[in-house]
Amino acid sequence: MGTYFKSEYLKVKHTFIGKLVFIAPLFSMFLSFMLTSQYFEIDSYNWWYVMLLPGMISILCTSVAAKDKKMKNMAVLSLPVNLRKVWVAKILVCVCMTTFAVMIHLFGCIFIGNILGIGKLGAISIINAVFASIVLIITFLWQVPLCMFLGSKIRMFSTVLINLVGYLILGVLLAIYNTLWMVPYAVPSRLMIPIIKVLPNGLRAVQESQTFRPELLSYSVILPGIIITAVLFVMFSFFTAKWYENQEAR
């Protein structure tokens, strides 16, 4: 499996995809620093999981899937390789690059917000920032195999559009309601409310904010949210790997 992973990673190592994992988190921090520096950390996190992280994952995954798709997968179909392992390796590459991007965002926010002390009105404790980033990695994993599959079927633009609509509209609107469990796009925004104390619309989770309710600060939603998205990741990985493997017979 290690050989498959190295092969897939080398395909994207020196491409725009490799630079994207730096550009996306840095841009999120740049926007927050320039536009709302007093609330630097909470706004940087909010823009990160509502818009920039979904967009980055969409572009990353569709690009990884498109590497072989451009040649109608002949580069792998003509070789004595296990196609299921090839697909799983692609998923793992995307997971690792997504994790790396989230870590860049985490350390950048800690350095600017906690060490330099910028944005004290929107400060997040280091422990909560670390916890938030770990939860974001887990709750976004299901997007990786899904976006790779969609990228293979409907291309990058449509995949990015679906994801942005899902997170920017459905995620923000439904995260504060109990129906959020039917829409996994809303899970990250909902789980961030008790962790970093910010609502999906970017307002602080305090009594004076519109749409705020005290029960939104309950940590009881975190474990169900993690379980749901983890199960989706396993399911999508299994079924898309099976789909990819079946191309050998076509």
UniProtKB/TrEMBL annotation:
Transmembrane regions listed in the UniProt entry: 20-40, 46-66, 87-115, 121-142, 154-177, 216-241
Annotated InterPro entries: Lanti_perm_SpaE/MutE/EpiE-like
Keyword hit for Oxidoreductase: no
Alphabetically ordered keywords of this record: Membrane, Transmembrane, Transmembrane helix
NCBIfam families in the record: lanti_perm_MutE (TIGR03732)
Name this polypeptide is given: Lantibiotic immunity ABC transporter MutE/EpiE family permease subunit
Organism: Clostridium fermenticellae
